[in-house]
């Protein structure tokens, strides 16, 4: 066992301006442009999540909120933990702000969705088990989000009405989520594969 | 990895809870900021919604939701109508307050009632200072000979409101309009008096007197008080206030309406005094005027009784 006295107490860091390295970072294919485009794509997926939330109510009045949950689940499994939670928080914040609701409840629900998706993907990674992972994520994210909405952001006037609507929303939402999640997750993965075609994985951490 | 995820989730939940506990003002500002930032996404969502609607049509698998949406829409429409009605009501209250403020008088209002009229027409060339046409007529109870008053200017802060003063007399009345002879017209005349001196006389206008042909925009001069019955012991002084008198042959005239002040005292060829009166108001720009409708003795008595009752209640 290493004693306390053996451990180094101080860390010495030397920072030097290295023009060659900076130039390489700015001009190389896997440098700045890759990170910038990755950030832009992430922001686009975030906007897709709450944007579809607003676009779909006119088409699917019964399930207006689900794209946010699916988008959060996708980002939670494909990004770093901090990026996943920050995305979930941002999507929830935008949803609440745009729907003129108190800020916070949607963020909490989506963070829970993101956490569940990450914990599940740690056991069953999406790269190896895409179908199982996507199936589980769609069911899980829909269920958590619908139940969370019923608790936190009740759309109807009374609690009884909300819980009467819950089974319909829950099973209907899950049924709807299966084809849409498979379709959207696949499309998003293809787009990311085209945008980041290097052998390396997208920068997760 | 798991620990990192849990820690990040806890941090995000704490942050969201803090948002819930934030003061409403700060939250609304933050929400406004977020709405501005997310505007491009909203535009994108709007576009996708249009595309979806164009592709899938307007049919909804949930008719009850359609009903709710329709009810919400109807409610929003009614809410907007209610807001408009409220705004109109508030405007009417403010207008009413403004007019009440305008009509605040120092006279005994039991003797006459004031009717507010708008100036409809004024000949800009030949009779600009002679006549005006107002939008009140016999329908509103206007009669020939009734006295027309000018609105006093709005007082500045701390100043007292001036009393309405004589502007002219109604010369002709139709159903919806009336012609008013202004005090500055050459054919204007009305009986008046100076109460502090006990002097009465006939006041006349003198605009364009002695001039032939149309006079374009010539400002009128002072009024003339001819043949004053002046007691020798108490001569009229410059600055004395002149009021209308009921001694003339105009049965619709109202007594003690302010006309103006004595500006100059002179004599004619035979030594008779002539008083030049400066009108209290100029009539160059007129938008609204007030007509004094004389009340009948019965009405005056009833109004006085009402006033006494109100005073007793207070």
Number of helices of chain A: 7
CATH architecture label name of the domain at 47-187 in chain A: Orthogonal Bundle
Number of domains of chain B: 3
Major sheet description of chain B? 6 strands, antiparallel, barrel
Number of helices of chain B: 5
Query: What is the CA-CA span between the terminal residues of chain A?
Result: 31 Å
- The share of residues in extended strands of chain A comes to under 5%
Under CATH, the homologous superfamily of the largest domain in chain B reads Rod shape-determining protein MreC, domain 1
Radius of gyration of chain B: 34 Å
What does this structure look like?
The complex is a heterodimer of chains A (205) and B (314). With 205 residues, chain A is mainly alpha-helical. Chain A contains seven helices and no strands. Chain B is α+β, with helices and mostly antiparallel strands and 314 residues long. Chain B has three domains: 1-59, no CATH class; 60-102; 114-292, Thrombin, subunit H, CATH 2.40.10.340. Chain B is elongated and about 120 Å long. At the A-B interface, α2, α4 and α5 of A face α1, α2, α3 and α4 of B.
Task: Characterize this entry briefly.
The complex is a heterodimer of chains A (205) and B (314). With 205 residues, chain A is mainly α.
List the helices and strands and how they pair.
The complex is a heterodimer of chains A (205) and B (314).
Chain A: H1 19-27, H2 32-55, H3 66-78, H4 81-98, H5 105-123, H6 130-152, H7 159-195
Helix pairs in contact in A: 2-3, 2-4, 3-4, 3-5, 3-6, 4-5, 5-6, 6-7
Chain B: H1 2-21, H2 24-37, H3 39-56, H4 63-102, E1 112-121, E2 131-134, E3 147-150, E4 165-173, E5 178-182, E6 189-194, E7 199-204, E8 223-226, E9 241-244, E10 258-267, E11 273-279, E12 288-294, H5 297-313
Antiparallel strand pairs in B: 1-2, 1-12, 2-5, 3-4, 3-12, 4-5, 6-7, 6-9, 7-8, 8-11, 9-10, 10-11
């Amino acid at each position: 066992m290493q004693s306390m006295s053996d451990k180094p107490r101080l860390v010495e860091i030397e920072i030097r301006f290295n023009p060659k390295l900076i130039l390489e970072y700015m001009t190389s294919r896997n440098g700045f442009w890759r990170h910038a485009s990755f950030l832009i794509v992430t922001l686009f997926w975030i906007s897709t999540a709450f944007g579809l939330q607003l676009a779909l109510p006119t088409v699917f009045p019964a399930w207006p909120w689900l794209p946010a949950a699916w988008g959060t689940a996708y980002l939670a499994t494909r990004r770093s933990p901090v990026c996943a939670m920050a995305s979930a928080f941002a999507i929830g914040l935008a949803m609440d702000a745009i729907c003129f609701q108190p800020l916070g409840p949607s963020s909490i629900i989506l963070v829970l969705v993101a956490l569940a998706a990450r914990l599940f993907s740690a056991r069953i990674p999406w790269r190896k088990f895409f179908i199982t992972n996507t199936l589980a994520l769609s069911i899980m994210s829909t269920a958590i989000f619908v139940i969370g909405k019923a608790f936190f952001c009740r759309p109807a006037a009374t609690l009884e009405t909300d819980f009467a609507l819950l089974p319909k929303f829950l099973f209907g939402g899950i049924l709807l989520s299966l084809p849409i999640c498979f379709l959207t997750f696949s499309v998003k993965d293809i787009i990311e594969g085209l945008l980041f075609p290097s052998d390396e994985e997208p920068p997760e951490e | 990895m798991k620990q990192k995820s849990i820690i990040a989730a806890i941090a995000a939940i704490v942050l969201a809870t803090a948002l819930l506990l934030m003061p409403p003002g700060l939250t609304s500002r933050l929400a406004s900021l977020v709405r501005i930032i997310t505007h491009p996404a909203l535009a994108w969502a709007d576009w996708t919604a249009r595309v979806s609607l164009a592709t899938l049509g307007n049919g909804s698998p949930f008719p009850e939701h359609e009903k709710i949406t329709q009810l919400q829409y109807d409610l929003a429409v009614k809410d907007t109508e209610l807001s408009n009605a409220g705004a109109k009501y508030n405007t009417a209250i403010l207008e009413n307050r403004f007019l009440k403020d305008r009509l605040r008088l120092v006279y005994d209002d039991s003797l006459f009632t004031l009717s507010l009229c708008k100036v409809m027409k004024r000949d800009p060339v030949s009779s600009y200072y002679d006549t005006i046409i107002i939008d009140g007529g016999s329908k509103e109870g206007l009669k020939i000979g009734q006295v027309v008053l000018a609105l006093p200017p709005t007082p500045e802060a701390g100043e007292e409101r001036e009393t309405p003063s004589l502007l002219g007399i109604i010369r002709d009345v139709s159903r919806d309009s009336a012609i008013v002879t202004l005090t500055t017209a050459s054919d204007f005349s009305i009986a008046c008096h100076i109460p502090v001196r006990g002097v009465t006389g006939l006041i006349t206008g003198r605009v364009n007197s002695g001039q032939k042909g149309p006079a374009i925009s010539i400002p009128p001069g002072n009024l003339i008080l001819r043949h004053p019955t002046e007691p020798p012991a108490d001569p009229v002084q410059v600055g004395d206030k002149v009021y209308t008198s009921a001694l003339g042959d105009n049965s619709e005239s109202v007594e003690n309406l302010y006309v103006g002040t004595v500006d100059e005292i002179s004599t004619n060829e035979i030594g008779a005094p002539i008083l030049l009166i400066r009108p209290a108001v100029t009539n160059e720009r007129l938008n609204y005027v007030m007509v004094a409708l004389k009340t009948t003795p019965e009405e005056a008595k009833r109004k006085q009784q009402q006033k006494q009752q109100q005073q007793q209640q207070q």
